[in-house]
Model the fold of this input.
Amino acid sequence: MTSELNTSSEPHTSPTSSAPPVSPTPHNAKRFIIGIAAIAALGGALFGYDTGVISGALPFMEAHFGLTSLGEGIITSALLIGAAFGSLAGGRMSDKLGRRAALLWAGAVFIGGAVAVALAPTIVFMVAARFVLGLAVGSASVITPPYLSEIAPPHIRGRLVSFNSLMIVSGQLLAYLINAVLARWEAWRWMLGLAALPAVALFVGLFFLPDTPRWYISKGRTEQAAKVLRRTLPAEEAEGELGLIGQARAMEADARRGVWQELRTPWVRRILLIGVGLAIVQQITGVNAVIYFAPKILESTGLGTNVAITATIAVGAISVIATAIGMSLIDKVGRRPMLLTGLSGMTVSLALLGASFHLPKSTGVSCLVLVLMVLYMGFMQATLNTGVWLLLAEMFPLTVRGLAMGATVFVMWLANFTVALAFPVLLDAAGASVTFWLFGLMCVLSLLFCKRYAPETKGMALEDLEHELRRAGRGDGGEEART
Done:
């Protein structure tokens, strides 16, 4: 068996399953699925708002608390280290309590965390409150994509899971808009506290949602699973899908392994390591340095604080547009081609961005820097961000899905934490040019990783995908590994 993964964009169906042909989703089912996605993805919107709002609040917090560059990094990254631990807790809770119950817990913490951050009287209290808020952000980030992937029909799964990515960047855009409006009054506490409103909507809305068929079956609640499937699939396909999920679950039960033992299985461990690699790739290529510190970057070119905060709206707007484009393409083009195209575009954008800081400061150079940041974010959000979240939601077997997703997102948030903590210090010490060229180098290394290891999952039922990954990891039939 080679370590090379199959690069074909054509789906491979397992010989042990007979997935029915794709049929149009009934109108009532579409409305049901859209309603689920709209409520569940509020977790993504809160993820985006709480990570994006700090960019506008930070300049005023710096003056209020007398922050140094290191202090800025600590306050920014406190949420991220909380999110790392929240992702571990969220993954385990989603397996034990259910995807819906775990999201309810996250919604409650979102509400309390937003209020605490807005009222923080001291730096220490702010750091602690941001950490607590991060627990909710991390939990939502690890629960929402599997929830949507498990409840979506295969032919729209990519678009539905990617809707969560759209909600993340929409939350960031909303944060940038609110920052721009409130900046004239330096009302940074209101910037932070307004996150409580969508958190309440998420918490209340979840009481009206079911859990996923796959989680119900994992707990032996077959009738509830069937009821949900009949609301998301044509009647003639629901029973077949129920059988496929039950078959996959029975195979796992026969193995009589615990979750941790299952992770020691070579093919599962290999998939987990690829997931960890993809999580790191998403972070070390610089996206969150732009999201968290865009006003600081623009201020370094000579713009005033309020103008820089307002200009950041362009970053949020292109993120939403690009993610919508990515959603429309990912089920047609495939996951791998989009990752490779995006990383190539990001490399070129960052190389030009680094070079632009060697030009004399002027309004024209400030506009050029903004345009290149927007170009970079367009490539990133349309391809890498959309593709990585989708792959992580798809590629793990049901038995370990919550734990494996939690572990990979834990690593993702740790990488995010490292970048957020180091970026303002590195920017001051080495300059913007060197900093962005370093991110460009990370894009090149990430491109090589994705070309060799990123799987293609387009159009495959989760159960067929699991069989294919299992066979690839074991090298059945002496074929080239397919993942």
In short: The chain has 22 helices and no strands.
